[in-house]
Amino acid sequence: MEEQILAEGCRKGDDTARKELYDRYAGRLLSICMRYAADRATAEDLLHDAFLKIYGAFDRFTYRGPGSLRAWIERVTVNVALEWIRSRCKPGSVTLDEGKAAAEVAEPDVSEMARVPRDVLMRFIGELPEGYRAVFNLYCIEEYSHRDIARMLGINEKSSSSQLFRARAMLVRRIRAYLETH
Hints:
mainly alpha, 9 helices, 70% helix, 0% strand
């Protein structure tokens, strides 16, 4: 089913279109949820919430060409994950270890990174503290600016930047340790 027809079917509440949307995108959206949640059960709950939100918001979706449906449902899913993070934290509590200095560690080169399986890298990202993980995902994967991240998480830009630095440092240490043993 073409994206535009699929979107129109979902807008009309067609269960066949909704099932097609779920079957086509659930795996991709679950992987987004897994990047923000610490465990699979929470990620599955977030996926469920995301689909409820998606199905209920089709009146606000505008088809803009191939890929626009996928981009829209991914953005809705990220927003559901961010709402979940904000609901778990008091305002401003997403910042972590603000007073601690993180040691700078040289990042592995491309050939070293090629030795780290994707699932191992994703597990390392999933094991980051919640605030670090959120900032890392938003900046490195979703490609938001620190200004946008600060607004989304209710923190200041410097906190976003320092959390990204600390997240990267933690990941580099984990990757280096992995490379030494594999």
